[in-house]
Design a protein that fits this description.
mainly alpha
């Protein structure tokens, strides 16, 4: 008598198990789970916080004590010192992004296994990782830029100075993730990242003025994200008072006299979106498995 009622249930169970579509935890639930359990663990781990906090604090202290009080001195022989501080503030986050590369490479096997098991989508994992990084970066950069800005006695708005630095740092983080995603191993990633960043510093406009760049290389300046954050910091510093320099004004000397600092911050933020989507695309399409 039990067989007629049991058979339909077996057929139903067999149909559910034989489905060809994968079952994945909803993205919002997976993101909530990762933030609830893994994020606090990262934020309490000295190995996670060390490369993301202490290096920036130490470099910030070095910059502040080295250029102490020079940001308010508009003597012609001191203007280059001010510009160099602003240049360093957008270049160092890009180079410092090397400390973020292992975050993806080391966890690659874990990511592949958990993604294949349907625990989360690729976008869920990437949003969780980027969220962890951006929160720590926001808090660290807020304090670091404050004592640099007021210690060096820079002019303009501290908020713009912080946002310019934070955008550079955020783009550097997601750039490191992109390099890690396309690289087969950590050695390749650590070689590619500084190579690419080094190529960018020639097109920021400080080491080599944009007006002097050969026309066949000028296009590269448009895709150099530190160019926009440095331009924003320069406009923030000298926008209200553009001092005389080398027969012209300082901003005009660098071709920045028409720069809107907030617009340039927006341009820099667009690179974050681009590298995030590029990283997501690579991680979604690449299997990372060898047989």
């Amino acid at each position: 008598m039990a067989t007629p009622t049991l058979t339909p249930r077996l057929h139903l169970l067999q149909a559910e198990l034989s489905t060809k579509s994968a079952t994945v935890t909803p993205w919002y639930w997976g993101l909530r789970t990762l933030i609830k359990y893994r994020s606090p663990k990262n934020w309490k781990d000295p190995n996670f916080l060390g490369p993301r906090v202490f290096d920036k604090v130490l470099i910030g202290l070095l910059i502040m004590t080295l250029y102490l009080g020079k940001g308010d001195n508009y003597a012609e022989n001191n203007l280059m010192n001010i510009a160099s501080v602003l240049f360093i503030m957008v270049v160092l986050p890009a180079y410092g992004a090397a400390s973020y590369v292992p975050a993806l490479v080391v966890e690659r096997a874990l990511f592949v296994r958990e993604r294949n098991d349907g625990l989360y989508y690729t976008v869920t994992y990437l949003l969780s990782k980027i969220g962890d990084e951006l929160l720590v970066a926001a808090l660290t950069s807020c304090g670091m830029t404050a004592f640099v800005f007021f210690g060096v006695q820079l002019r303009g708005e501290w908020v713009c100075f912080w946002i310019g630095y934070y955008i550079s740092l955020s783009v550097g983080i997601v750039l490191a993730y992109f390099i890690a995603a396309i690289s087969p191993n950590l050695d390749v990633a650590n070689a590619l990242l500084p190579l690419y960043v080094t190529s960018l510093i020639f097109f920021i406009g400080f080491l080599f003025r944009l007006t002097n760049i050969p026309p066949w290389w000028y296009w590269y300046s448009f895709i150099a994200f530190p160019k926009y954050t440095w331009g924003a910091l320069m406009a923030n510093q000298f926008g209200e008072e553009d001092p005389t320099f080398s027969g012209t004004t300082f901003l005009r000397y660098y071709g920045l006299e028409t720069v809107d600092k907030w617009r340039y911050c927006g341009y820099g933020a667009l690179f974050f979106i681009f590298f995030f989507l590029a990283t997501l695309t690579v991680m979604s399409l690449r299997s990372y498995q060898r047989r």
